[in-house]
Amino acid sequence: MMAKEAILTENRRYKHLLSLMGRNRDELSETLTDKQLETLEKYDEAMNEMHSLAEVEAFSYGFRLGVRLMIEAGVPLAKGIT
User: For burial by CB atoms within 10 Å, which of 18, 53, 54, 74 has the most?
Assistant: First the structure.
């Protein structure tokens, strides 16, 4: 399970979309040749990696933004950090 799936397990819309994607993928897979299935798997792997990178960047941006807001608000940071 990917991080986003662990966070969204209670979201009904997410569950519905995940189910829909699975059904459509299964249906599509039944019509593809072995070579086409291999290409689809490579595509899926690239998309998963791209989404993972985007999630890491979004978290990093949000974290940096939160720290900047704390600094501007005058919230004391950990000892030794200025």
Answer: 18
